[in-house]
PNPLA domain-containing protein (Roseospira visakhapatnamensis), 599 residues
Amino acid sequence: MAETGTPQGKADKAAPDGVTFLSGTAFETAAWQDPNRTAPPPPENTFELGLVMAGAVSAGAYTAGVIDFIVEALDTWDRERAAGNPRAPTHQVRVPVMSGTSAGGMTTAILAAVAHRDFPHVRMADSDAAATGNPLFDAWVNQIDWAPLVRLHEANRSGPPSSILNGDVLDGIVTGVLDDAGTRPSRPRVWLGEVTRVILTATNLRGTPYWQDIKGVANDGYGMNNGRDHQTFALHPPASDDRALPDEIALHAGAVGSHLETWAALGQWALATGAFPVALPPRLLRHRPGDRDHRIVVADPETPGHYIAIVPGTTRSDSTTDQTFLAVDGGVLNNEPLNLARRVLAGGDGRNPRQGHRANRATLLIDPFPAFEASPAPKPGDRALWRIAGALLATWKGSARFNAEDLLLAMHAEVYSRFQVAPVRGDTNTPRGPLACGVMGGFGGFLHRAYRRHDYLLGRRNAQRMLRQHLVLPAANPLFKRGGAPGGVEEALRDHRADHADGDYYPIIPIIPGTSVDAPEPLPDWPAVNLVDVDTVSRRFADRADAVLGRTLATMAIDGVGRFFLSILASTVVKRKVRKEVRAYLAKALGDWHLRDLP
């Protein structure tokens, strides 16, 4: 799969009425950012749901399990309703947008590839197979592992190493998912609608420049650079018309494969959003000229009803034509891309109705690591240089992710426009967290398949409970009034009442009695202890570190004698130190997570 190569877009079109571009460039996408734009309401008896998948490193296995169950539940409901099952409610759900960051972005891309293709679902009884045919399970549980990540040499790459780990296995997984999807039987999914926006984030290491003129002695100004970036793909079902906006990349489900330019672009964005900085290699991406011209649109204070689109550039008249950039993990700056999905649902700066009796749209955030621990008061040792550097990086990241709107919504308990799935086990076996992949800051899932299998199955279990008890609306919501009639909820919903003390609530996505999704998803056993051979892992990681350091030294401007002695030092002292430290860290981390016997 080519690393770059963004498909050519359609020609720019005239600006919408009332929108002025500072550079004179214009096209219709600016209408999506109109501050006063409000999306039309969904069709009668239809609820719109945006899927949002947060960053998770190896715990993307959990997100994949949640998505697997949700897809199965929606497919089952559509099938039973079409067959006239009297226990299948007649309201409908549409998913017009899915957004993802990091591991969540990679899962979003996998779902996009098979969105209109048939694939089996993986339950506990099926989860020991080396190949299940389920792209979510196979990519996240069966195919990714620590061994290929520490291979000594990358294929088809020269020059200094760009990451501690070897990213070749990820290229293979992405290519395999796309090519496999193209061979699967077609299965158009009504609940995805006529077009689904697929949004992947990335951290743009070049950034998007903006210039602000300020009058003064030099008549100069100052520039700003925005590293938050994303790409929107417009996913169409088979044999449908192209409805992509000018800054979007059209994906047609009728033909999927890594050899197709648009799907290859999706694959590269998936690899970029999952490129954990330093650990995994950055990816080279490209925007088309004009793709970002509409992203900041503000009200024109001089002309009510008009808006100004602030175009990127180092000056007001300079919009950079070379759009290539290196990108890393989107979660560095935006780990929960709720706002990107919300803007598609609500339109511009519109708002989705939040009260239970009015809600008709919502985002569903799947977040394997929602917890946040505040930093403790400083201690004397925190003044050390390396501690200050670490604290500064954490502060930069936290500030970049800060969102005042999320805080405002969190103050209101009765908000039905945002829902969340997060991991819960319901026992006390895991004092550090419910996910086995949570060990080592989320990287631990790469150490053993059993960890990833556990989290995938827990994701299915949590999704089932979420749909039954928490992704619900009060009975007064018009969604449940058949044909809009005022006389109570339709009869088919009587079997689906959620157990709430403050009144009757009914699920947005019902689980149809007697179907496969109705069978209880069992709690998976916590993985056995001592599955990971810490000696082998630490030795192989030290070998990889030695190779990375050696190749780095080989490309540095050091004379031959100096390079020789540095190489000897790296291959003896440094390698031995790395192996010792990695082994000690692994042993303690696994022990703290009840995944290894402590001495």
